[in-house]
Amino acid sequence: QVQLVESGGGLVQAGGSLRLSCAASGTFLAINVMGWYRQAPGKQRELVATFTRGGITNYADSVKGRFTISRDNAKNTVYLQMNSLKPEDTAVYYCNAQILQYVYWGQGAQVTVSS
Known about the structure:
By secondary structure, the protein is an all-beta fold. The chain has strands spanning 2-7, 10-13, 18-26, 33-39, 46-52, 57-59, 67-72, 77-82, 91-99, 102-105, 109-114. It has no helices and eleven strands.
């Protein structure tokens, strides 16, 4: 069983910063891809950023230049540094991990950006 535990969400004013963390625990050899997705009220879940075990990153166009994903393979942890936050970034942010053919999700962290 693999568990993902997120932390770091909260309320921030527009232009502010937040940092999300997600730690994976359980029995597994390696995590292929770790990443972040988000879901705003009334909208579908969307990709924010991903980080492969080999070091390749991918970002949604809407967050490029503002968000930075990083990963610590030794700690099975992925981070999302969010700067210059906008009200439209308000959403529940979900950590995602892909191990072999399986996909795991965290419980979600609320991020609210006030204008």
